[in-house]
Amino acid sequence: MTTTLITGANKGLGFETARRLVAAGHTVYLGSRDAERGLRAAERLGARAIQLDVTDDASVRAAAKAVEADGGLDVLINNAGVQEEMRDDGVVVIGAAELTADVMRRTFETNVFGMVRVLHAFLPLLGRSAAPVVVNVSSGLGSLSLVAAPETPTYAYPGVAYPASKAAVNMVTVQYAKAFPKMRINAVEPGFTATDLNAHTGFQSVEQGAEIIVRMAQVGADGPTGGSFDAKGTLPW
Question: Of 38, 117, 118, 202, whose Cβ has the fewest other Cβ atoms within 10 Å?
């Protein structure tokens, strides 16, 4: 039985990923900052609820201890994220001229530092798995090649903090994959999916967006590592 933990999984892409992996036979820990919301979501899916706030050391440590006590972990999906640059109506309002260090810090606290915090806590458990896998949910906006290319849709995006945080996620992915060659550690781009993160302005459904996350969560020991992927294939850094 494969045991999987998904952060930020009580709604959106995380919830859909949990649903698909439960259906595939995984034992899924549904991580959520809000314990009550997480419990309700987990009950709907037949998953296990676990309180996990990626910005809080004590919360992450407690979650790691609970998963360890239950038997360990095979797959970690770092899905929790924020997009501080978005207003409630989904309009980007913080470009380079208006960006402050506080906005950058809040964005990185969840998207980068939170991911590293979770990785640090769960790596010992993953190291005991026969087929450990890590999936870091990133974005095409984290690709320097794509954002710098005028012919791509990402070129027009004026925000700074969110793309910078996802570029950092990509670098963390590469360096961890090199440091732990027995693990399959990859970044994925779900596509512009309609979720609370973007006030449901995305043009993809969560079913479509979760496809690449689910696929990479199930790679075998001979699968890729240290790469960035969307539903169509490999993405440039």
Answer: 202
Q: In terms of Cα–Cα distance, which of 3, 50, 40 is closest to 24?
A: 3
| 27-32 and 48-51 beta bridge pairing | parallel
- Identify the CA nearest to 196 among candidates 90, 42, 95: 90
CATH assignment of 3-234, among 3.40.50.720, 2.60.120.10, 3.40.50.300, 3.30.1300.10: 3.40.50.720
Selecting among 29, 157, 166, 176, the annotated active-site residue is 166
C-beta of residue 131 within 8 angstroms of C-beta of residue 185 = no
Helix (H, G, I), strand (E, B) or coil at 31: strand
Mean pLDDT, each 10-residue run in order, the chain (237 residues): 97 94 98 97 98 98 98 98 71 81 95 98 98 97 97 93 97 98 97 56 72 97 97 95
Which residue in 11, 29, 155, 162 is the catalytic one?
162
Query: Is 182 one of the catalytic residues?
Result: no
Distances 103 to 88, 98, 141 between C-alpha atoms, Å: 16, 10, 17
**Residue 166 annotated in active site:** yes
Please give the order of strands across the beta sheet that includes 228-230. Answer: 48-51, 27-32, 3-6, 75-78, 133-137, 184-188, 228-230, 233-234
